[in-house]
Amino acid sequence: MRKLVGLVCCFVLLCCTSAAFAAAPIRIGGLFAVTGPASFLGEPEKNTLEMLVKQVNARGGIKGSKIELVVYDTGGDATKAVQLATKLIKNDKVVAIVGPSTTGETMAVIPVCEKEQIPLISCAAGIKITDPVKKWVFKTPANDHVAAEKILIQAQKAKQKTLAIITVSDAFGASGREQLKQMAAKRGFKIVADEVYGPKDTDMTAQLTKIKAAKPDAIICWGTNPGPAVITRNIKQLGIKTPVYQSHGVASKKYIELATPEAAEGVMLPAGKLAVYHLLKKNDPQAKVLKEYADSYRRNYNVEPSTFGGYAYDGFALIAAAVKGGAQTPAAIRDGIEKNGKMVGVSGIFHMSAADHNGLDLSAFEMVQVRKGDWVIMH
């Protein structure tokens, strides 16, 4: 009898241990600029990731494993981002990281993730993040060269031949400037003015006065708020009537609000489809995902979702798809993301591969224009 009780106890213990092993939690990290000048990026990214993890766990997790989330606020500071990435890996033992929010932070964090062999799914757009391909690094916003190409295609349609560019002097702006100059030359445009402004500058009338004197057919501004909003107001104040393009870095209603609807009227830019999801055709392959995300975000936070939150949505979706495929370790998650094939996300339709750790093309963007304080799709 004692033997039988012993065997039963061993069996129960074995079952409990294997059940616990099978349902081991999966811990992922988030690095976002929740405060500071890039908070318009980081806040919706953090909110989105927390919302998704809560939803997944309410459904019992992924394949029985609950998701544990550890999020840190970088404040948009590259040095702090490196310290917090190290903390996530060494102390919190995460198997993957979503973020950071900006290109500068991401470039600083990459060496840490490559050395420690932890998948990083960045929410920043700079092309250098994934080109050349780095084994452990992916990103969910479309490459800035895709956005630049979208703008230049529109400029060609409008028969605009001379361009003025004004770019922010950070990693995102430097990357955009480089892409614009290369691609404009290839497409036969002439750049007649090339101005730069600082991320904290509050008046760009000096640069815009030079641009006005150069008499370009169009102006392209490349940066993230608040700079582009200031430039938009300055353009209005100087009475410049030249058509204006902004980058995808301001593809949220916040830009219109900061610039004022009156000053932003007519401004064009490439935006992720989330900004205009209600205007898409019903058969658009992203329509369902976009509506579900928008409705869910609105319900949880009582504000409109932004394209930037969508970057975190896609980062989590890529990790979740890898886990659904059986991945639990950092290496297996990395392999799962790379070999995932087609994934319909908020930022576009991803086709990740060993040669492409972004996986998005021109279809990720719609050219939009500000009309009466809102976006319309350009045709």
Automatic annotation (TrEMBL):
Residues 25-360 form the Leucine-binding protein domain. Transmembrane segments: none annotated. This is ABC transporter substrate-binding protein. It comes from Geomesophilobacter sediminis. The keyword Kinase does not apply. GO terms for biological process: amino acid transport. Belongs to the leucine-binding protein family. Residues 1-22 form the signal peptide. Keywords: Amino-acid transport, Signal, Transport.
